[in-house]
Amino acid sequence: MHVLEGIWQEEEWGVIAIVKEGNKFQKYAMDITHESYEKTLKKYISNEKLNGTKDGAFFKTSQKNIYKVIIRICWPVNPGAESLGESTVFMTGEATLKIINENKLSEKNKSKYMKKSRIYTRIWPKRIKEHNKEIPINKSSNESEKRDENLGPTTSNQSTNKNDFEKFFDGQLDLATSFWGFLIVGTFVVGFVCGWLSAAYGKGWIIPLAIYTFFAVGGTWASAENYKKKQLSKQQSVLWGILAQIVCVLNVISVISMLVDMF
Predict the structure, then answer these.
(1) Where is the domain boundary, 72, 104, 134?
(2) Of 3, 1, 131, nearest in space to 67 by CA
(3) Residue 1 lies in a domain
(4) What is the distance between the alpha carbons of residues 238 and 210, in angstroms, rounded to a whole number?
(5) What are 180-225's pLDDT values in tens digits?
(6) At a CB cut-off of 8 Å and minimum separation 6, what does 184 contact?
(7) N or C: which end of the chain has fewer CB atoms below 10 A?
């Protein structure tokens, strides 16, 4: 992992994630807890609806440890808005980011709409140098990937004989399909149907939702593990795999909570 990558606590904002994507480092809002006071509306505005969205980007400069930052600036225009994301105007500004050390970043903003300086404090991984040293690199993984791309007749027939559900549960589907298709969309659809049936015919219809959730979590977890192995073999970030597994854990906790309430 690059020293910029990881999960950070941004001063007077909240928890953000930084991931290397191509020639830039993308910043994502994860848990924005800061409330902004809007003078025009004369009240504090929540930022939680920005969670899960792109929050800016960092670009390398000719100076070591100095990055150009494109920041997102947003504010509500609807007097009835309770959160940013409701009738919100978005624009961009520029800033400069300096790496102080592996656990601390300093951002200097040029926009008049933003606080002039902010500090980022690392949440995960705490000791990135030790973290990178501890990552096991599978030297034969590249050869394995090449074999997968040029499958022989036997392997091809085995793969063809499996349906999508079997591939999913074995972790053979890509992480994006497993996470968004089975875990997020699938759980939403099954949850909607089971919720309606439980309201109409009894709480017992929550059980099929629990069964599907455990199925979706199992397959997504397996896909995330395979994703991490492939990323490690290429010495690239495994952050998306870790975040997907965190969502899996949260889904399991939610279902267990529903079952406890039901019984």
Answers:
(1) 134
(2) 3
(3) no
(4) 28
(5) 988 899 889 988 888 888 888 888 888 888 899 999 899 899 999 9
(6) none
(7) C
